[in-house]
Amino acid sequence: MTQLDEQTRIELEAAAFRRLLDHLSTRTDAQNIDMMNLAGFCRNCLSRWYQEAANAKGIEMTKDEGREAIYGMPYDEWKEKYQSEASAESLAAFEVNKPQD
Questions:
Q1: How far apart are CA 93 and CA 32, in angstroms?
Q2: Which residues have a Cβ under 8 Å from the Cβ of 91 and sit 6 or more positions away?
Q3: Per DSSP, which regions of 4-96 are E strands?
Q4: What's the CATH fold of domain 31-83?
Q5: CB 82 within 8 A of CB 25
């Protein structure tokens, strides 16, 4: 692998993250529960990680602000527009696979 300087690595990671957010904004059919069941993380996880990173840098960010940064709109608005009722199968799978925090 090509050796990257720290700044270039950060820029590439940021670009990949922005692309992930853009992709998720167009794939509103990908429900959070399904993402959790398949990948072990979802948009809410990303928003929490984003908020935690901001807080670690001394930037005050609420849970709602973190979610809006990831969802591109207030969370309640996203849920109203795009979230569907989880199937019994998805809920059962989540109970088996959910993180043990």
A1: 13
A2: 33
A3: none
A4: SMc04008-like fold (1.10.3340)
A5: no
Q: How far apart are the first and last CA of the chain?
A: 35
Supply φ then ψ for residue 46, to 5 degrees: -60, -40
Which residue carries 């509103």 as its tokens? 28
d(C-alpha 88, C-alpha 27), whole Å? 22
3-state secondary structure of 57: coil
Task: Name residue, tokens 């969802």.
Answer: 71
Q: What is the pTM of this model?
A: 0.87
Q: How far apart are CA 91 and CA 65, in angstroms?
A: 27
pLDDT in tens, 26-58: 999 999 999 999 999 999 999 999 999 999 999
- In the chain, where the domains are located: 31-83
